[in-house]
């Protein structure tokens, strides 16, 4: 069984902003209300990898949401480089060849603590989007197939919508992480997400970590919003 995760570490704040200065100002405003941060494409390509190293040195946890997907050697070497940054999570797309390469890269740097998360189907996708992309399966079935493959390959966790968490848990068992974006506190706008739930509902469905962006980052008091989400997580547990 996996080690217990504190309510505070279950919240991951998405730093989806244009500059590291902006991100660092937000982090300062949040203070001790969060300690796990996600860096994706936008910030990653604007100095975010350096920020990741600084956050790790300051005692924070970092989720690098880079969604790697390329030929095997490129993915493997990329994962090995990321392992040296001290990040906790790194995403790859849940294609078997990509996942196998990522596992090789992770295992080549023992002791790094890096965990590989496989992105099954983006939470901005629904069945129509999957069909338009050429998939014969609907979103729920595609998530289930990819989650089962990820477990077989040795991936550490799955990124999926909370609405698929029960299905994913059935496929991957209790010893794999489930990380969910598309979390919106009650009353928050959905934005471009299509498969969303509240923090409490996500935890009750078996999710381990919740990724929350705009409801915190766009709030007038991001510290208060983060604290309320952690409190909701704790209550749901």
Automatic annotation (TrEMBL):
Q: In which pathway does it act?
A: Pyrimidine metabolism; UMP biosynthesis via de novo pathway; UMP from orotate: step 2/2
Q: Where does substrate bind?
A: 16, 38, 65-74, 123, 184, 193, 213-214
What Gene Ontology biological process does one annotation of this record name? 'de novo' UMP biosynthetic process
Q: Which SUPFAM superfamilies match?
A: Ribulose-phoshate binding barrel
Query: What keywords tag this UniProt record?
Result: Decarboxylase, Lyase, Pyrimidine biosynthesis
Query: Which positions, given as ranges, span the membrane?
Result: none
**EC annotation?**
4.1.1.23
The entry's function note states: Catalyzes the decarboxylation of orotidine 5'-monophosphate (OMP) to uridine 5'-monophosphate (UMP).
Source organism's superkingdom? Bacteria
**Domain (Orotidine 5'-phosphate decarboxylase): residue spans on this chain:** 10-229
UniProt source species: Methylobacterium oryzihabitans
Catalysed reaction equations from the record: orotidine 5'-phosphate + H(+) = UMP + CO2
Q: Which InterPro entries match?
A: Aldolase_TIM, OMPdecase, OMPdecase_AS, OMPdecase_bac, OMPdeCOase_dom, RibuloseP-bd_barrel
Q: What is this protein called?
A: Orotidine 5'-phosphate decarboxylase
Note the subunit structure. Homodimer.
One annotated GO molecular function: orotidine-5'-phosphate decarboxylase activity
Q: Which family does it belong to?
A: Belongs to the OMP decarboxylase family. Type 1 subfamily.
CC terms in the record's Gene Ontology section: cytosol
**Gene3D superfamilies, sorted:** Aldolase class I
Please name the top-level EC class of this enzyme.
Answer: lyase
């Amino acid at each position: 069984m996996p080690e217990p995760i504190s309510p505070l570490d279950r919240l991951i704040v998405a730093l989806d902003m244009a500059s590291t200065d902006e991100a660092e100002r937000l982090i300062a405003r949040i203070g001790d209300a969060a300690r796990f941060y996600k860096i994706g494409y936008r910030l990653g390509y604007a100095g975010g990898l350096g920020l990741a190293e600084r956050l790790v040195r300051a005692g924070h946890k970092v989720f690098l949401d880079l969604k790697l997907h390329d030929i095997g050697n490129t993915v493997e070497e990329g994962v090995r480089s990321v392992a040296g940054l001290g990040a906790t999570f790194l995403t790859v797309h849940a294609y078997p060849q990509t996942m196998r390469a990522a596992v090789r890269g992770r295992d080549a740097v023992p002791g790094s603590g890096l965990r590989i998360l496989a992105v099954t189907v983006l939470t901005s996708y629904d069945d129509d989007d999957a069909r338009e992309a050429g998939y014969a399966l609907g979103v729920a079935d595609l998530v289930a197939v990819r989650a089962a493959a990820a477990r077989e390959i040795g991936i550490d966790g799955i990124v999926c919508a909370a609405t698929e968490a029960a299905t994913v848990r059935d496929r991957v068992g209790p010893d794999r992480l489930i990380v969910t974006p598309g979390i919106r506190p009650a009353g928050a706008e959905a934005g471009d997400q299509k498969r969303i739930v509240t923090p409490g509902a996500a935890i009750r469905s078996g999710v381990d970590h919740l990724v929350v962006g705009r409801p915190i980052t766009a709030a007038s008091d991001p510290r208060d919003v983060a604290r309320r989400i952690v409190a909701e997580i704790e209550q749901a547990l």
